Amino acid sequence: MSASSEAADAGAGVDGAAEAVVVLGADLHARPAAALVRAAAGYGADLVVIAPDGRTAHAASVLEVLGLAARAGTTLTVRGRGPDAVAAVGAVAGLLGAGGERAG
Asked: Which distant-in-sequence residues (6+ apart) come within 8 Å of 16 by Cβ?
């Protein structure tokens, strides 16, 4: 099953904002959650991951991300604010869509 993602700029502002919707390529267990947190930490943006039921997790917290208990095929929303929001959301959405494996 291929993962798909759709990113859209959520609006302009001093800080910048971005949002992407992504279908998980694999279950969001400890290893991909840790990769997500590491990736998010590399950007100047505050990111949240939102589950279909509205639960949110700050991308800086492995425990919060794990708490979403998201399974492969689940559609998640990634939202970010900050100077690097567009790049950060794109990177995190890419990791989620690829099942937590770094491309490269």
From this structure: 45, 81, 82, 83, 84, 85, 86
